[in-house]
Amino acid sequence: MTQDIFNTPVFSVIIPNHNGSKTLAEMLESIFRAGEISIEVIVVDDASTDDSRTIADRYPVRWIPHDSCLGAANARNTGAKAARGEILVFTDTDIILPPDTFQILEKDYSAPKTNAVIGLLRPVTRYGNLCSQYKNFYMHYTYNKLPAEVTVFYTSIASIRREVFLQAGGFDGTYRSATIEDMEFGVRLTGKGYRILINKKLQVDHIRQYTPASLLRTGFVRAAGMTKIALRDRKTRRDKGSYVTTSPAFLAGIALSFIIVFFVLLCLVSLNRFWLLPAGLSYLVILGLNLGFLAGLANATGPIFFIGGCGLIFADLLAHGCGVCWGVFSFMGGKKY
To answer: What is the 3-state secondary structure (H, E, C) of 178-228?
Structure first.
């Protein structure tokens, strides 16, 4: 299906797609149930091999294919260049938008000085396993505690004036995997003096299922990427403030997780169980520092997830810590991305 090319839309919704057929239809349905609103929807297909095109053809969307897989950052840039709307809205195939998404954004952009607006995830996800609920609630909890003005362009639901996006240079296409390109763009955008606001009333559903392996891998990769950005831009960002969205309690927990590993190894090497005491105390400090997050997880999903979260958080912290170390090591080895 095609859209009327003679009407200029207010919003251009840009969706990068790579084999996203499992959730694409539900995602598109969520956009079009928003009612009468001036939008165009652009699906940039990044060389999919599934039936995404067949699904997209059921809806009034613009389909722009890539001949080869270039990554989400490049797909978003392609969509932005083709967009006709004043406001670009970036989202993903595994995101479900609430019906009032565009009404919220219209109100935000009624202020001429508004450059960009992001939202956040709802506190719970449809997947009932521990890793999915843990990760989803952590993202909600962390972003919900941020101030009104932020330095991350969170592409699960992120919007920006088209001229601002183009003036900032778009996403860095060097990032081929969808892990850190939104952080880097937020750093660069705010470094140029533009403001990113977070509207905490704009909450989307993330329909992604995490396993222990994918949860820890995501934490590792994201921490490594953020570390390299911090090292690469340490001089230019000195007077611009921090872009880190991670809570101080979580950051302290990363350091404590390494301390725990040190004491456990000391116990194994010396065959002295005494070293388990400081290890245990360090673990209790981690739980104490992150009690707000763990209690919120239990309140949103159930008491059983509090118990599971108390165990999972150590592995998550350690994965992030290893990511930080790898980021430093690889940066020193010349890898800036």
So the answer is: CCCHHHHHHHHHHHCCCCEEEEEEEEEEECCCCCHHHHHHHHHHHHHHHHH
Query: Identity (one letter) of the amino acid at 280?
Result: G
- Whole-structure pTM value: 0.91
- Divide the 337 residues of the chain into consecutive groups of 10 and give the mean pLDDT of each group: 59 97 96 84 96 96 95 96 97 96 95 95 96 97 94 94 96 80 90 95 96 96 89 63 71 96 96 96 98 96 94 97 95 84
**Domains parsed from the chain with CATH numbers:** 11-209 (3.90.550.10), 211-337 (no CATH)
User: How far is Cα 47 from Cα 325, in angstroms, rounded to an integer?
Assistant: 34
CA angle, 96 as apex, 93 and 101 as ends, to 5°?
Answer: 120
Q: Which residues pair with 11 in a beta bridge?
A: 39, 87
- Evaluated on CA atoms 284, 287, 292, 297, the torsion sign reads negative
| Pairwise CA distance, residues 88 & 6, whole Å | 18
